[in-house]
Amino acid sequence: MFSKLVLRNSIRSHKENALFMGSLIISIIAFYVVLSLSNQDVMRYLKTLESDAIQKLFAMITVLYGFTLFIIFALIYFASKYQIERRSHEFGVYIMMGMKRVKLFLMLFLEDLSSSLLALLIGLPVSVLITEIISLLTVKMVGIGFMGHQSTFSLKAALITAAGFVAVKLVAFLVLTFSLARKEVGTLLADAPDNVRKKSYPVIQILLLLAGAALLIYAYILGISGDAWENVKTMGTTVFFGTLGTVLVFRGIRFVIGLIAKHAKGGTLPVFTFRQIEDTVIFKSGTMAICSLLILVASACLSAGVATFASYNMYDNIRIDYTFTNFFRGSGADPLKKIEEIGYADEFSYLGEIHISRPYIVGDENYDEAFDGHEFSEIMNELDPGFDQHWRNDSLGGFPFMIRLSDYNALVVAMGGEPLVLADNELGLYRSETFANTEDLDNAVLARHPKVRLVDKEYTMTGTMQSYPIVTDMFTTLSAALIVPDADFDLYENGYTETYVNGVLDRSRYSKDDMVENYQRLNRVFNRFGLEYESYLQHMGRQLFYLVAASYVTIYLALIFLVVANTILGVQFLMGQKRASKRYKTLVKLGADHKTMYRSSKKQINWYFGLPIAVAAASTVFATRALFNGILSSRTRTNIDELLPWVLIAVVIFVLVEYLYMHIVKRSSSRFLETLMTPEREE
Amino acid sequence: MEPVLKIDSLKKYYGKGESQTKAIDGISFQVMPGEFLGIMGASGSGKSTLLNCIAAVIKPTSGSIEMEGKEISKLSGRKLADYRGKNMGYLFQSFELIDNLTGKENILLPVSLHGEKQKEGSERFEKLVSYLEIKEILNKFPSQMSGGEKQRIAAARALILNPGLILCDEPTGALDSKNAKALMTKLQGLNQEESATILMVTHDSNAASYCSRIMFIQDGLLFHELRKEDGEDRQAFYDRILAVLAQLGGGSANVL
Fold first, then answer.
1. On the CB side of B179, how many CA atoms lie within 13 Å of its CA?
2. What's the domain count of chain B?
3. What is each CA distance from A507 to A347, A504, A679, in whole angstroms?
4. What digits encode the pLDDT tens for the residues B150-172?
5. CA pair distance B78, B96, nearest whole angstrom
6. How would residue A682 be classed by pLDDT, with cut points 50, 70 and 90?
7. Rounded to the nearest 5°, which phi and psi values hold at B158?
8. What is the pLDDT of residues A499-528, one digit of tens each?
């Protein structure tokens, strides 16, 4: 009899609560996706690069798993709480019939267990399928198809998923039943009491709304002007004002909804519908604000993740494949010669030196006086007075490096770029890509052709700011350098000139898919002959690591946040509706049919989800712009048009998730309203 | 004159075979326009089943219920909802006001529910507001009203669409005697001045004494009927009601 009860109860609750079951399955997927990350093709590939980065990423996965556990706990706790609250009357009846609390506890435990098992039964295969799809998709998008696909399935991941899931559910269960056990039977039997509206003054509501809007706008301005990224303090201020603004807006929005309710017309039950919405805004403004912020974080993460992913180009056409080390000019070691000796020069379509040095005045070895760029600084200051003084002085004021023009041009042409043309008395400006975010400003300054002095000669700076790579990876990065005509370079160099030998591989010799294997083959050879070098593979590995770390983590977090926010909203709405069941019963008694009430309920759901989403959407526009300003490289930023389709995909995913959730909540609400349709007279 | 409500050999049985319960076992009666009919009976006598049948909440096993010439058991969906809302005004023991709507919004709820023109609603609204003396509480929420105020708001709501029949389900059940008296006076006034037809189920003999006719139900059958004589004052009628109730209480051994 007892087991029959358990079975019937659990079947009923699965049928009744798609939202709850959905949350459980999503939790399982979330766990498994994180845990099986190391089995993804792209991860296996990163491992072959033996980059330290991968260790960092795997260390991060543990953190991510812990974080997911925590978030999922909140999700399950919330969803279960609704389940239990919904049934409190039923529990009260069991106890009144003489069921011992221990037995009730056991019954709930068994029901909980059966729902966990069912969720695992559905969730695990689904998550294996999903990770498999993710693995295949990323391989395709990243362009490492040569790796060959291997199944991502990991028994260990599946077991830890199951263990983590059951543990989280158990803890949630214990916390919930503990609070249930302390309740008196009378409290259980009574329906949840109605919330009583506290008196609130419209003036205060308007003030809250205005203050909230003002704070939000201030945060937006900080965000898009880039001020937010200046330091931790301004970032903290931006986030704080944004959060507080959102909370206040939801506190004050009550006024607007109340106003709409008072003048609501059209459709059926307009006043009732808006009073219901007003209720949720009054009693759940905190939850709505939190959910709005979660949705904001989710959508910002999603667009940042998608954009990072899309902006990554595995095989940058403008690339140097090898750079052989750093030695001083004329010091004897000559990788160029060595490569020819061992017979590998044919592998390259270009193999050449690049020289980098610092100017000095011969005789007194004076570096400080060797360059005067004050006109450049002045024009920059004039064009952008807010531009950081310190950074400008550092970039051109003191001791700039020099790059030899013909070396640079040969390299640029080998990479398929346009050479920089300079007259004898002209200089070009170079910045490494990581420092190139001043491109627009620099070009504006260069267009005014500022005069500068190098050693004892006047020059005009010209052309556009150059940022082609001069080494393949990390041997050197230059915050600012002057591109100097050969004759003058040779004249001014200080004798300690760094020289790199760059090689661009002959791309006609192998297909794109053999790329990595080819690097690995050459690396073995160069290692054997004791050449010091860095290869594009390292660069690629690091880039891929950043890409995978950033986009995986952000997209993953985005989805988790989205799911949590929506589940909270959905559960809150359904709980609120249940609490308001008396009102719906009254409507039925007054002759409302299911269709009318369902229409009102749908409208409420649209508003209840729509308000947080709308506020989040407005914030997302600014947050995403701020994020792009802050994290994307200048090259990516100039390609913002190319990002657009990706952002659109993100938007579509987002809208789809929201639609799905709203649809599920609407269906649950419809079923609930159906149960109220028989207006029996109670004695 | 055609009756507003015509009930003919109405039966409602629950269950089957031996465990069958005959909640209503063949009741017939009519309610004429402008009548103020009371229905009294002990718990389990079948009066709530009767009320549920009239309100089209449950379907009778057999027999017919005609409301203004229309058989209501044949109604369904939108027509049924309209019947509940438009042809009938319902006054509940527990008021059934929606707690997050103001008094005015509660009263106008049936207007928006049944798509009536707001303007026609508003004329009637003004009239009811002044008759029931609820102008002061229109913008209050139910939690800020006294029981009597709530019931007067509920009465205005029941009357807003000018229904053919007003069903009152223990309307004084949750009121103190003073408020109960005030409400009954208003209902009686509506009945006499506006010829509103009222059917009231009640336990309260005091409230019942405002009716023009009272039917007593026991075990699913009509047990007795009292009519207020012309010129009979309320006190005398009240005494007669008490006498019947005393016999009802004495069980079937003392049937009249």
1. 15
2. 1
3. 9, 8, 79
4. 989 999 998 888 888 999 988 88
5. 22
6. very low
7. -65, -25
8. 888 888 887 877 766 777 788 888 888 888
Burial track B62-79 (b if 16+ CB lie within 10 A, e otherwise): ebebbbeeeebeebeeee
Buried b (16+ CB within 10 A) or exposed e, A196-215: eeeeeeeeebeebbebbeeb
The one-letter code for the residue type at B170 is: E
Q: 3-class DSSP state for residue B71? A: strand
A196/B97 Cβ within 8 A: no
Instruction: State ipTM.
Output: 0.79
Cβ count near A421 (within 10 Å): 11
What's the pLDDT tens digit per position in A225-254? 767 677 778 888 888 999 999 999 998 888
pLDDT at A587 over 80: yes
Q: Show the domain range for B230.
A: 5-254
In chain B, residues with a C-beta closer than 8 Å to the C-beta of A266 are none
- In DSSP terms, A499 is beta-bridged to A327, A355
Q: Looking at residue A145, what is its pLDDT? A: 63
Q: Is A88 exposed, middle or buried (0-12, 13-18, 19+ CB in 10 A)?
A: middle
CB-count burial class (<10 Å; 0-12, 13-18, 19+) for B211? buried
A585 interaction partners in chain B (CB closer than 8 Å): 96
pLDDT at res. A406: 92
H/E stretch holding A501: strand A498-505
Whole-angstrom CA distances from A411 to A76, A338, A500, A519 are 58, 20, 11, 20
In the three-class reduction of DSSP (H, G, I as helix; E, B as strand; rest coil), residue A9 is classed as: helix
- Contact at CB, A269 and B113, closer than 8 angstroms: yes
CATH code for the domain of B26: 3.40.50.300
Which residues of chain A neighbour B81 with C-beta distances below 8 Å? 591-593, 596
DSSP run (H or E) holding A504: strand A498-505
Distance from CA of B64 to the nearest CA of A (A): 20
